[in-house]
Each structure stands twice: as C-alpha cells, then as structure tokens.
Design goal:
about 475 residues; alpha+beta; Pnp Oxidase, Chain A; UbiD C-terminal domain-like; 2 domains; 11 helices; globular
Length: about 475
Amino acid sequence: MKDHPMDPKSYDRQDLRSFLTAFEADRPEKLVRIKEEVNLDYDTTAITFEFEKHGSPMLMFENVKGSRFPVLMNMYGARDRFAAALGVPEDKLIERWANTDATPIAPEIQETGPVLDVVLTGDAVDLSYLPIMRHFVEDGGAYLTNAMFIARDPETGVRNASFHRMQVNGKTRFGTSLHSRRHLWNYARKASAMGLKELPVVIVVGCHPLITFGSGLWKGPISTDEYEIAGGFLGEPLKVVQGVTGPIEIPAFAEIAIEGKLLLDADENEGPFGEFTGYASERSTRNAVEVSSILHRKDAIYHTIIPGISDEHTMLLGVSQEARQLKSLRVQYPNVTAVHYPKSGTCLLHAYVAVKDPAPGEPSNIAMAAFGDNLSLKLVIVVDADVDVYDEEQVMWAVCTRFQADTDMDVVRNGMGAILDPSNRDGATAKLMIDATCKTRPYAKRHSLPADVTAAARKLVQSLV
C-alpha cells in the first residue's frame, strides 16, 4: 500500500505518457495492462466496471478490436491518481488543490510538438479513424466522452476549457450538448448575439493531469484565461502549438486533438446518453461540431471516460468540486475543515461539510452558502470536525446521534438544480439541509483510543496490506 507522494520531478509535467510511466513504476498494481482482444463497444466498459470492485486501477487496453490506438480507461478512477499528479499524499489532496497557487502564467507557443506528428485534413478527416465507442445500450450512438473543448471568448479572446459529451453523427460531425450552462454556453450565446454563425473550437483528448486540473476542471471567473491557469498548476508556461485549420492553440504534448467549429444555429440530434446520475438522459442543447482536422502523436493513447455513474466520471466531478467549495466556503467560514461529495450522491448532488465549533445557526448558513455556490446540490449535511466526512458511515452515525428531524433540518423549495437530475421539475429542485452537529456543549463524549496507539496501529496495518 503506497502512502508516499510521487515526486513530480520523476516525469515531464506536460506529458501524459511520462506521468503514466512514472505512476506504473511507482505502483504497478494500480495500472493493469489488458492484452486480450476485446470489442470496442460495451466490452471495455463492462470490464472496467468489474475492476471497480477490485481497487479501481487504471486500465490500458492494448488489443481493442478495430482500433489503431491503445485505449486508456479509469485513469481518474481513484484519488491516488489526483494526489500523485499534485505530488502529495492522498489525505492532503483536497487541501493541496484548494490552496494551489494558480497564479496565471501565459502559455508558450512552440513551432511544433508531438501532437502534430500526424495531421489529417480535408478528405482524410473521418471520425471512424478514432476508437470512439458506444458505452451503454441506451446511448444514442458512439460517444467521445473525454472531450475537453477549448474555445475563445468571441469578445475578449480569453480561452476556456470544458468537458462536453460528443456523439458521432457522421464522418466529420458531432452532436453535442452545452447543458452545464457555463462558459462555453455563454460564449455561444454571446457569439449568436454578435451575428456569428460558428465558434472555432479544439477538442483535446488525452493530456497531463495538471493541464486537466488547471483548465478543464477549473471553475473560476469567465474573464480568466484557463490556459494561463493550467500554467499556474504546472508551475511553468503551458507549451502550445498553433492550430492547423483553426485559430485555437493546442497543448503541444496532447495525445489527440480535433479542430472544428461549433455551429451556433444547428438543431442536431444528440442523445440519449448515460449520464452521471446513472440514468440515460435525452436532455440536450442539440448543438453540432463540424470537424476540420484530426491531429495526434504517432503512437497516440486514446483516453476515454466511461460516462454514467462510473468511478472515473464521478471522481472527476467530485474531487475538483470538493477543493473549489472548500476554498470558497472558507472565505466566510474559516472554521470549515473539510468538504466531501460522496459517490452515493453522484459526486455532485450531495455534500458533507465538517465545521469546527460552529456557532448557533452557523451550520444552516454554511449549507445555504454551499447551495448558492453549486446550483446542482440537493442535500448538504453539516457535521462537527470530529466526524470524517469521507467515511459515510461516520456521517450517518452523526445524523443518527446528533440530529432531530423536527428542529435540525430545513427545505428550500424551487431552487435551481441540475438539469440532468431526472427528478427535477423543469430545472428546479428542492434542497435539503441537515444540521448533524452537537447542539449543546458539552455533548456526550465519544469513546476513544490514545492517539499514539492509533498511529502505531495504522502504520502496522499499512505495512501489511
């Protein structure tokens, strides 16, 4: 069992494959290479779900029928990969992310880079060239799921990165949905108001985790250039190359990049799609992307993410949200000690918040602040700092022993909610806050063990597991 951080100096901080090599060398049991031939559709998804029951390692499928590329799955299926990329022990992950000094660093343009090893344009562009797969029976088609869109604000020119599902609808066409209603959606609305018919985009498939953390997963003001935030996470300028058929710069060490245009007046069939709720969703903004080039490294790795309620999909939602919300809540409530988005709540709709010595009424204020900060939240449970919010059994124990239903919960009606939640009403949802903190001081004492005995026991067990 590895409890030490990985040394970021052991790999190139902008190169996915360098990170994978270092990670595999450090903890080989966490990256499983599957050499048996498997089918592209469904097989890789089913096998990954089975591995989720056995430690949820990364999986490299090296013999996917009909694919010219190896397929990487479940890369972000557990917290240890996030911690490894940031160079910290797993128990320091959220604090480290929340306190990352993401001081913007402008990207550095290079004349060329590995992503330009192979360039396909014109008649050579064909999306069947890539191993884009169908994950679930209910999906409307084959989906590119690890699609990090890069676009520029049509007014200011700042770059945004965000993830959106993409259904193959033809040789050079995707259907996509901007239902998260964030920056790219706003760019599209702004461009339409300016009389534009299209918005240049690049879709990046496979890049170093720190680039993903600082761009695709980063949530901040719409005025911020997310290539510069990626530089802040890297601690150095993000190396980019100029686009081949479009104006958007591309991370130089990306595995695969797809250039194209987001068509603003399209009404494209897209969906249904297995979403993070565990349900097939037919809700879509029905946008389209017309592809103009496919670029990739000569021995590219195709990284795909199982949609639905898979470990990787939900972990990507939860870890970034925990760090962002911990930081935002502490602005007003510095006694907040931890935030956790559990998989039982899809890592997006439920949150557990720990607070030290809360004042009367403060748990309710904290819950309301969390709801205002993340429109998707439906449930917030606030507990004392002695409760480990990452241990759901402890959270439910606090609800069991420190909560009374007639006085310690409130419901907010008709708040804005996640549009993909099948229980919502035209985008509106009720929100439940539960105060599971000790209301009187002193409270009944918890049973305990000497701290040194607990530390010695943990060290012994870690050496044996």
